[in-house]
Predict the structure.
Amino acid sequence: EKLRKDGKTFSILEIGANEHKNLEKFLPNDIVKYLDIKVPEELIEDSQYILANATEMPEIETNSYDILIALDVFEHIPKELRDNFLSELNRVANIAVILAGPFDEVGVNESEVRVNAYFKTKFGIDYIWLEEHISNGLPNLNNTINLLESKFSRNISHFKHGSLALWEKLIKLHFEEVQNYDLHLYVQNIYSYYNKNIFQYDVDENCYRDFIICCSDKLDVSNFFKIKEEDNQKLNFLNDLIDSTYKLSMEKGFMKIQEKEQQIQE
């Protein structure tokens, strides 16, 4: 919205969008298209989807989209192709590129290794996305910003978001929901509580994601998120909700065991 002038409708291309079409829910008045290297068969004929490799996009003309957005994508690009990836995003974007995701910073690698080990203990396999992070190596933040500043004639704005400790709790909660879908409704309510009460203040010394915005104008991002307030009551309540999910999961598991035993007896 800081970039929008006179109610302009933006043409937006989301890179590595997967199949969810979430972005248009946040930007209902803009024209949003999605690009991915893999597109499900049922979406191949969808005019909103483009099947392409973002490290080389000759089929997409220069400056053909106002804004390109890549969320949690850059770290999945092999190291030797990352410069190509950034160059292509810069080439196709007429106004701005928004890049977001984890970088090689204090605690992030260790947290991802722990979370992957948690997932592997729970499901017996590596978590596919974190496995790629670990095998590719997370990108270096300073090197990325320096490259963007030296190579592209755009202004760079940068901010962090998402307490690393809280990210680790919430992604483990997601795994619990995946394992026991009966928890879905309750977990969605927990996410809603986070969005309404924690999200705006979820800025810490060690954050999971960095956001880099490359555009013609230098954006003031200082007020995007408020500095974390001392509202321990809301954070404690969120932790209680998360803990209650695991208790509920155990109760549901115990009930299923009892039901199976009852069926065997009958």
